[in-house]
Write a structure and sequence with these properties.
mainly alpha; 0% strand
Length: 94
């Protein structure tokens, strides 16, 4: 996967994806990690893991804010896309 990076900036010559999971949330990779960590916390009955999952979701949301500024600069259609898909990670919640 050429576009996978730890840096919150689009790769050169990347493309804006708006289909499949991106039709529902703008950052489905974060969604998967947050939902998996919350699910694991609930399955194990661990309040500490649940608290860490919530903290990770908050951190991810802030990271997304930074990342989206790069995306707006790199892709002319990103502003419109973010209006059409209002959720960052979890539909109706975040």
């Amino acid at each position: 996967m050429k576009q996978l990076s730890i840096w919150p900036a689009p790769v050169p010559n990347g493309e804006l994806r708006t289909s499949e999971a991106y039709e529902y949330v703008r950052h489905p990779m974060y969604s998967g990690v947050v939902l998996a960590s919350v699910g694991f916390a609930v399955a194990t009955g661990s309040p500490a893991r649940l608290a860490l999952s919530i903290a990770f979701a908050a951190f991810s949301s802030r990271n997304i804010d930074v990342e989206e500024q790069f995306l707006k600069d790199a892709y002319p259609g990103y502003e419109e896309y973010s209006e059409e898909v209002p959720y960052k990670m979890i539909p109706t919640i975040l």
